[in-house]
Amino acid sequence: MTDRARDTAGVLIEALPYIRDFAGAAIVVKYGGNAMVDDECKRAFARDVVLMKLVGMNPIVVHGGGPQIGEVLDKLNIPTKFVDGMRVTDSATMDVVQMVLGGLVNKDIVSLLNTAGGRAVGITGKDADLIRARKLTHTRQGVGNTDVAPEIIDIGHVGEVADVNGGILDTLIASGFIPVIAPVGVGPDGESYNINADFVAGSVAEHLAAEKLILLTNTPGILDASGATLTNVSPEDVPRLIAEGTVAGGMLPKVRCALRALAGGVAAVHIIDGTVPHALLLEVLTDGGVGTLMRRPRSGKPSPEPERIDD
Fold first, then answer.
1. Any domain includes 304
2. Does the pLDDT of residue 138 top 80, yes or no?
3. Does the pLDDT at position 300 exceed 50?
């Protein structure tokens, strides 16, 4: 037997308990960032998702597409404006958002998964009222002056999740399909809303009582002051990490999304680097993983996930 064969056997044996424990479990993956634009990362992601499905897990993909939206807006000479990191979405911009997310990006991911041997179906949050939304009210507090009333800023067709009507997801999963969801929601009067993909993924994970919510990022997870990945973070640690500045910037909304998902019944949240080849499989099927793992508090539902083994 060659060393390579022994290594392969060892990997399969290491993966076996995870395959057993997560058989039939819903695993929601938020897909975006650089992993969506690098061809090799895209192919590796597709193979990972399909393998998860073939060994008995139920992956659900929720994707973003900010860079792709920006490119099309530039080509159409539609100006882009951001307020506190959120894209102001007027009617013209919303048309582009729906075209890019529900059409170009969604169908590209579906094609990747199907080419890799899966059975993927693309939908938006508007299909079968999957993601019921409400308009997001953005309030900006006066900095350093408590006497100034908060400023309410209209950022257009930007929404937040009001409810998940997951019947279509239940049907697709039961039929052996991999749902691929574009984060466009529908309001009470049928209006369309652009919604942050992280929070759509978290809401879908809550609805499905998912075993895992995996957020693919462009960093190796939550990093400490020395740049090392914090492999295990409990919800109780988060206020301290925010106060220390360890969790800041773009990581802050992801951690808040993780906390809400854990409070809503999701067993574990993983924040991992989507640019690492086969990051999904390494995180789900190995002892060491490749990112930050957050679990529900000890008083919550026990998870089969063991303590993370650091390298």
1. no
2. no
3. no
Residue in the structure block whose two tokens are 């990997």: 11
Any idea what DSSP says for residue 157? S
Instruction: Supply φ then ψ for residue 23, to 5 degrees.
Output: -60, 125
Query: Which two structure tokens, joined as six digits, stand for 79?
Result: 């100006």
pLDDT at 220 over 50: yes
If you search the block for the tokens 């897909």, which residue do you land on?
A: 31
Asked if 104 and 122 count as a contact pair (C-beta separation under 8 A), the reply is no
Distance CA 270, CA 210 (A): 12
* Cα 190 to Cα 225: distance, rounded to the nearest angstrom: 46
> DSSP 3-state assignment of 31?
strand
The number of domains in the chain is 1
In a domain, 202, yes or no: yes
> CATH no. for residue 45?
3.40.1160.10
Identity of residue 18? Y
| CA-wise closest residue to 150 among 158, 160, 161, 139 | 139
| 5 within domain boundaries | no
Q: Give the single-character DSSP code of 24.
A: T
How many CA atoms lie less than 13 Å away from 135 in the CB half-sphere? 16
CB atoms within 10 A of CB 61: 26
- For residue 289, what are the domain limits? 17-295
If you average pLDDT over residues 221-228, what whole number do you get? 88
Amino acid code (one letter) for 120: A
Residue 139 CA, chain-centre distance (Å), reads 25
Please report, for residues 42, 63, 80, 98, the alpha-carbon distance to residue 54 in angstroms, rounded to integers and kept in the order given: 18, 21, 41, 31
Asked whether 192 and 186 are in contact (CB, 8 A), the reply is yes
123 lies in a domain?
yes
173 touches 57 (CB < 8 A): no
pLDDT tens column, 68-102: 999 999 999 998 888 777 788 889 999 999 999 99
Contact 260, 204 (CB under 8 A): no
The residue type of 119 is R
